[in-house]
Design a protein that fits this description.
Number of helices: 4
Number of strands: 0
Oligomer: single chain
Length: 60
């Protein structure tokens, strides 16, 4: 995950600690990623886009 801009060793470890598996991180929605310890909204968006290959859907 450290290849994602804004996700260094510390955030990657925090995400794995929180979600437990890479699969769980991949399947998390944007709100779950934003709520993870140590995450910011911009970092959560980058993780989401990395795994979903698309822009984050905008809220109506």
């Amino acid at each position: 995950m450290t290849e994602i801009e804004g996700i260094g060793e510390t955030r990657a470890r925090a995400l794995l600690r929180h979600f437990r598996t890479l699969t769980a991180i991949r399947e998390a929605d944007l709100a779950e990623l934003e709520a993870a310890p140590g995450m910011t909204k911009p970092a959560a968006r980058k993780v989401y886009v990395h795994f979903h290959g698309e822009e984050v859907p905008q809220k109506p």
